[in-house]
Amino acid sequence: MNWTTPADLRAQVQKMWDKGLILASLVSGETLFPRRLALKAPSSIELANRFEEARSWISDLRRGSHYRVVMREVRYHIIGSNSIPEEIWIDTLDNALAFIGKSRDAGQFNGLVELIGKRIPALLPWLAKYPLKSLALAEDWPLLLDVIDWIHTHPRPGVYLRQIDVPGVHTKFIETHRAALSELLDLALPPDAIDTGAAPGPGRFCSRYGFLEKPLRIRFRILDPTLALLPSGADQDIAINQNAFKSISPEVSRVFITENEINFLAFPNLPQSMVIFGAGYGFEVLSQAEWLQRCPIHYWGDIDTHGFAILDQLRSHLPHAGSFLMNRETLMAHKHLWVKEHKPVGRELLRLAAEERSLFEDLRDDRIGHAVRLEQERIGFIWVRAALKSYI
């Protein structure tokens, strides 16, 4: 039997709730009810052939609550005159909410609409657009509004998020709600309080609304003992923030970048050289150091598709960067140390040199082997020292 049941009717109303239509109407004032629901009733042949089932179906449907059944009289020569359901209606919003057990939730949402309408009415369109998300934040809305009020009163404050002086608000609260706050602040703040050059969303939250970012730190070693920045004999493993890194003027003639920490720590001494512990795809901070733009750079990464993708990304910030030990000769000499690469890069890389691109495409297209990867830490240091002789 595929005739509409009370459960089917409830599912239709639940679908309206799940789409946010019912709650959104509480913001917009749109009238959704009375509303006719879809009904599949027995055909005349089914009534004649399955009369007892049909009568039971009608009884079950009419016993249901919170909806109205409109009946019509039908007359068949076999079964005579009978009343069958023709239409099903939900007459009121209250009936719809009671039908799916959402009266309490809707009442809570109404309270949010009233609260936000009084405090920051500019946010009401967000409630209408994301009603279920708004309801899920019900317990947090008072503090969210306090944060938005504080930022509105202190536009582009130039302090860390930790310094927002709102009772009950802490850094984790803001971190947890960055995505929602970003959308809400775009509605609540005047245009001059928003840096539209910083993309909306949690990733550039601080820049977009004028908060201080946690300083990024760059870790490096001077490989020439005669150019050491710290006293002789001291560990030359140094980490400084990006502004300090921009301001230094090391007397080095070349810079190596490696992604592996042990390779970074064990990198051999080399005249007028520095090694930087890389940051994966995060090279923007390095490009801000003008002295690096004038200094030869050699990137050492894994010989796999991701290694070449990182090299490609580095060149988007430092176009003159070269590669180190990322060649076919090194790969083939260490065949016994190959491992499999997970989720190889499949796109084109446009910043690779001809030999690099040839090797990358062979790796990407499995022409050397399936998902071949040579991790940089597997390359013997005898091989590393031999390669560095050309820089002495």
Structural descriptors:
392 residues; alpha/beta; Dna Topoisomerase Vi A Subunit, Chain: A, domain 2; 6-stranded mixed beta sheet; 3-stranded antiparallel beta sheet; 20 helices; elongated
Write the topology of this structure.
Blueprint (H helix, E strand, L loop, with lengths): L5 H13 L2 H8 L6 E3 L6 H6 L1 H13 L4 E9 L3 E11 L2 H8 L2 H17 L4 H6 L1 H6 L4 H13 L17 H6 L1 H11 L16 H5 L7 E6 L14 E5 H6 L6 E5 L2 H6 L6 E5 L6 H4 L2 H4 L3 E4 L4 H13 L4 E2 L4 H6 L5 E2 L13 H11 L7 E2 L7 H8 L4
Parallel strand pairs: 6-7, 6-8, 8-9
Antiparallel strand pairs: 1-3, 2-3, 4-5, 4-7, 10-11
Helix pairs in contact: 9-11
What is the CATH top level name of the largest domain? Alpha Beta
Number of domains: 3
Number of helices: 20
Beta-strand segment tally: 11
Characterization of this structure:
The structure is a single chain. The protein is of the alpha/beta class and 392 residues long. It has 3 domains: 6-103, no CATH class; 137-209; 217-391, Dna Topoisomerase Vi A Subunit, Chain: A, domain 2. Helices cover 43% and strands 14% of the residues. It has helices at residues 6-18, 21-28, 44-49, 51-63, 93-100, 103-119, 124-129, 131-136, 141-153, 171-176, 178-188, 205-209, 242-247, 261-266, 284-287, 290-293, 305-317, 328-333, 354-364, 381-388; strands at 35-37, 68-76, 80-90, 217-222, 237-241, 254-258, 273-277, 297-300, 322-323, 339-340, 372-373. The strands form 3 sheets. Strands 5-4-7-6-8-9 form a 6-stranded mixed β-sheet. The protein has a 3-stranded antiparallel β-sheet with strand order 1-3-2. Strand 2 (68-76) and strand 3 (80-90) form a beta hairpin. Helix 9 (141-153) crosses helix 11. The longest helix is centred in the N-terminal third of the chain and has 17 residues, at 103-119. The chain is elongated. It starts with 5 loop residues before the first helix and ends with a helix. The model has no long low-confidence stretch (mean pLDDT 92).
